[in-house]
Amino acid sequence: MISLRALLVGAIALTGTSAMADEIRIGMPLALTGVFAFAGVPSREGLELAAEEVNASKLLGDRKLVLEVEDTASDKTQAIALVDRFGADQGIVAIVGISTSGEGQAAAPVANSQKVPLLAPTALSDEILKAGQWSFKTSSAATSTITAVANHAKDKLKLTHVAIVYNRDNEASVAQRNVFRDIFKVGGNAPTEESVLSTDVDFSALITKLGGAQPEAIYLTLPAEQSANFIIQARQAGLSEIRFLCAQPCSSVQFRKVGGDAVEGTIFGADYFSGLDTPENKAFVESYKAKYGRTPDNFSALGYTAMKLAAEALKNAGPAATREQFRDALAKIKDFPVVLGTGKFSFQEDRSSIYGAPVLTVKNGEVALAE
Amino acid sequence: MLIQQLVNGLVTGSVYALFSLGFTLVFGVQNILNLAHGSLFMLGGFIGLICITYLGLPFPVALLVAAIGAGLASIVVDLIAFRPLRKRGAPEFSAIITSIGANLIMINLAQRFTESRVLRYPFGTFPIYAIQIAGIRITLFQIFMVAVCLVLVVALVFYLYRTRFGGQIRAVAINERTAGLLGINAAIVYLQTFFISGALAGIAGVLIGTAFNSVHFLMGEPFMLKAFVVVVLGGLGSIPGALIAGMALGVVQTLTIAYVSTGLSDIVIFTILFLALVVRPSGFFGPKAESRRVVRA
Fold this sequence. Notes:
The complex is a heterodimer of chains A (371) and B (297). With 371 residues, chain A is α/β, with parallel strands linked by helices. Chain A is 44% helix and 18% strand. Chain A has helices at residues 4-14, 37-56, 76-88, 101-114, 127-130, 142-156, 171-184, 204-213, 224-236, 253-259, 279-292, 298-317, 323-331; strands at 23-30, 64-71, 92-96, 118-120, 135-137, 162-167, 192-196, 217-220, 243-246, 267-269, 336-337, 344-347, 353-354, 359-363, 366-369. Chain A has a seven-stranded mixed beta sheet. In chain A, α3 (76-88) runs parallel beside α4 (101-114). Helices cover 73% and strands 3% of the residues of chain B. Chain B is built from eleven helices and two strands. Chain B has a two-stranded antiparallel sheet. In chain B, a hairpin with a 2-residue loop joins β1 (130-133) and β2. In chain B, α5 (140-162) crosses α6. The longest helix of chain B has 30 residues, at 59-88. Chain B is globular and about 60 Å long. Chain B starts with a helix and ends in an 18-residue tail after the last helix. The interface between A and B is medium-sized, with 33 and 34 residues.
């Protein structure tokens, strides 16, 4: 007869917070609400779709990915708290999350001190890599999409007179301004610079001022809704000839939804083009449409790729992978087929990622390659 | 371009004036700095949005519903936040604190309901039509905003100075106890004041939400800061003062952005506020120096 005490001890042992042997727990703090939800929400869809595919295809044998999704609300403090919590929970193998550069800059040092691998799907800032060996990001250097757009503007469109509008209260926006300006002025034409606050909604004075200066194009490093709002007001003020070049946020579905007809013809750099002609991408677009009812956007693709990278690392690290083994396996990924850019993903020595950057435009309400 | 920027400034200024009217009214009558005014403005914007997107009401009706809704919400704020303090004869400062509390509650509720998203009025809410006169471009909606602002100011002044209700409001503003002795029911007066203030804020919310393609839970906060400047410059409690100061502020802000720098516009505005407080704290339309004592019944 088993003693009551033995039963109790056994019951308590079974109710620990550590994962079951065939479960791999992944922490997923994302910006599901707030200013950056335009990135967080689609990335979640991509992440979950990828995890489903991995589980269904038994890529990891009998082990299943279990995602623990939490909302950072686009807030740095919340991001830090969630990364800290996931890091302290030894049952979590890795964190695939953190949507924005602001959150990333704040949370990456925490991940490093907790020694938990962090793979940020959509955050752009290189500070995430500089925080230490444990933090990675899927998207390539912020500079690569901006470089692609700046070169397209200079070389293909032959623009000489450009104005930049950036958020002076957001350091990522300021950094993007610097990158664009430095590349563009190589031809000898320094762009004019104007700033707005991320809370501004009334751009009438600035638009009139820019209208007077008559640039050929305006480069916006603002979030999706604000960019769309600016363009709408500019068109309403009669600036129908000016072209708009945008940063990566404008590759989101939200930008086209808020902007409507006004944003037709906007050119932006992106990490992903849904028309990429590879078998992986075709399959991805189909399954995404079947599950969510629309074409995946830039951020869905980044989320999808992040989870696929994580799964590949888990596969290579072997069963019962520790956090170190996962991290090392992740860093070694080279020429891995992905849906981003031109189709192949590699982490370089400094953990930065490359995959090619298409320049896209809004054509008839959909995304197309820019000419 | 200068004329165009002046036009932009007047439009922006009329928006600031409209927002500040309700704010200055409550202060003038009740000596309460109602920091929840921004939330009533935001609430108006959302009510208008719901009317147009979900109920399919036409724009003028939505404007009216938003005004009434925000007015009623304002009364609720008065009943819950301010009236208990008045009954207890609490110092004015506590009214400011409760208004901050009411503001936070409304902002948080709005944040929850909208999941912090930035919403917009549907395209075609108001016909987009621009007029070109003598090299200046102005849209129908901008004219509409300025017109609404002027009409409301005139209506408010008429109400306050030419009707019996307005007389009662002014009497209570001067001295509540004496007004009570003359048979005026201060409670009704306060309800009216708050309703009007809320309704004005609600109308401003719909207009600004439509004009700038943006309705979200924090939309009132930047306007509150500007409203402070407007009511101090114009004189706390002065309706014409709010209009003139609002217009002036709009023009100064626009010209600073246009001719100096976008980053300096806030610095210029708040420097003007600072100077006004130092040189003439009661504003341009108030007496030279003023100290108020609030006498409650």
